[in-house]
């Protein structure tokens, strides 16, 4: 962890405190099945860096909104992320038994409960947006439309499908980036855009700059993930080191070499921060988050 | 099939034509994975009675709305229903290999694709509501909130969790109904309520009457399902006859006997139709649907 990450770490900690409280409240709403509710809580509240919520809150600040208005959208993003992890870890998918340093949901509970918990976490994301305080119905609808597009078959789930189809195949760098732009990039971009949409009159120009920031950052995030899979420590990264290589998944280092991947990471960081040039001091947390994403050790 | 079902059959056919066209359009929107999109299409467009969309369109008519305004909500209900079937059929859940007379999605494709297709179908339901034409943003938000509540951990998914937990247990009739009110009832009630919400000024009184109608109808639907599992023909019902009993699932006939279950069915039908007493001739399709639900042979 370098010095450049400390402002982001403080900001992430601040975001986590706000978000985790709201997430716990959201899941608390009476369910008819204690086991299902417990699996949802386990999957959402068991750690995690809260990068997407933090990007959402940081984008709200960058366009001059109050943080309060961005809390529900931020939670909805984390719920979508959490559901995707639960389903991705299933035996029929990536078959992972360790996540965030703990047994994955289908190991801690059972496969059926994990499938249902994932399903219900997705639904809850839309409940939170439909009920989001301090926003107009028009803002709620815009956010729901953006989140759905980013997370469905045209976004995250589509990317996950490409990922599964690509195991063992020789992707080129364009195909790899297409996969990542969907699998992780779309939701990271939505995180920033939902934050910006908390400002009722946010300009197209700001929205577009923030999308560019997020688009580069999303890829940078993935390059760093690939590097950590090779260089990271299982205990710190919270999942098995080398698990991508073991599954013959295409990665940046495999295509560009270690040095090439590190170079790409630097270029993406620069691209990401340059996109914020038209924004002022209010965008400091977004800039800090970019530094964090490329330097994090888990 | 008795004479009392013919008006409903004509109405269902009318609804299916409208809905299936819109559903095909919705899924057509470019996905990045052909296989995922194909699995979504297979799971949604491969038959099905379209009871939920028909209830939604019929409720819209009952409160004096134009059918056009109810088409997108009707599609969203069918998408939630379709996703729940795909996930319920998975090996870790009900492990069914036959649905609507065809191999289930995880057999026709593979388990991972079935999980993702279900996930994406749920998301698409919310996209359709967020983009629904002829509705105000306030109506869209109300419908999204209702649909999410009916289908998440407080509704359908919660009911499915109870169902899984109940296999082999001796439920009493109250516990059985609690399960069904969540597992199938909540979405049937949402079908009718979303249809009614197409009328911007729909009265609380009408909404409440329609909820009562749907609540009784939802249980009636389940009683008839249980009876068909015993008395039906595998070829006609499109899934294995006797599959509930084989899994030691609690059913109405098991708890009330065949005659008792048929009696309960009659009482629920009456209750359902009585709830519509305050509505006029415009509610005829809803009445026809009630007759259909208790007399259908699949």
UniProtKB/TrEMBL annotation, chains A, B:
CC terms in the record's Gene Ontology section: cytoplasm
GO molecular function, one term: prenyltransferase activity
GO biological process: phospholipid biosynthetic process; terpenoid biosynthetic process
Keyword entries, A-Z: Isoprene biosynthesis, Magnesium, Metal-binding, Transferase
InterPro entries in the cross-refs: Isoprenoid_synthase_dom_sf (IPR008949), Polyprenyl_synt (IPR000092), Polyprenyl_synt_CS (IPR033749), Prenyl_diphosphate_synthase (IPR053378)
Membrane-spanning parts: none
One Pfam family matching this protein: polyprenyl_synt
Cofactor field: Mg(2+)
UniProt-listed PROSITE patterns: POLYPRENYL_SYNTHASE_1, POLYPRENYL_SYNTHASE_2
Family indicated by similarity: Belongs to the FPP/GGPP synthase family.
Protein name: (2E,6E)-farnesyl diphosphate synthase
Organism: Marinobacter vinifirmus
Phylogenetic classification of the source organism: Bacteria, Pseudomonadati, Pseudomonadota, Gammaproteobacteria, Pseudomonadales
């Amino acid at each position: 962890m370098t010095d450049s990450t400390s402002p982001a770490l403080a900001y992430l900690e601040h975001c986590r405190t706000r978000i985790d409280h709201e997430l716990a409240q959201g899941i608390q709403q009476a369910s008819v099945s204690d086991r299902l509710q417990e699996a949802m809580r386990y999957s959402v509240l068991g750690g995690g860096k809260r990068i997407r919520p933090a990007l959402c809150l940081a984008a709200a600040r960058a366009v001059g909104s109050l943080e309060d208005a961005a809390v529900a959208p931020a939670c909805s993003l984390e719920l979508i992320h959490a559901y995707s992890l639960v389903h991705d870890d299933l035996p029929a998918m990536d078959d992972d038994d360790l996540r965030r340093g703990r047994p994955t949901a289908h190991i801690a509970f059972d496969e059926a409960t994990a499938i249902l918990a994932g399903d219900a976490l997705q639904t809850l994301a839309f409940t939170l947006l439909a009920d989001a305080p301090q926003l107009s119905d028009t803002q709620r609808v815009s956010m729901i439309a953006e989140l759905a597009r980013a997370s469905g078959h045209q976004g995250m789930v589509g990317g996950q499908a490409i990922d599964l189809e690509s195991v063992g195949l020789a992707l080129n760098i364009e195909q790899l980036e297409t996969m990542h732009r969907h699998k992780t990039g779309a939701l990271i971009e939505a995180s920033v855009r939902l934050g910006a949409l908390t400002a009722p009159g946010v300009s197209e120009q700001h929205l577009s700059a923030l999308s560019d920031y997020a688009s580069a950052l999303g890829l940078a995030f993935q390059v760093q993930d690939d590097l950590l899979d090779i260089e990271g420590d299982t205990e710190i990264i919270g999942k098995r080191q080398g698990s991508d290589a073991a599954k013959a998944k295409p990665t940046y280092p495999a295509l560009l070499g270690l040095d090439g991947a590190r170079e790409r990471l630097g270029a993406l960081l620069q691209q990401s921060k340059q996109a914020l040039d038209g924004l002022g001091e209010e965008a400091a947390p977004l800039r800090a988050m970019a530094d964090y994403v490329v330097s994090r050790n888990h």
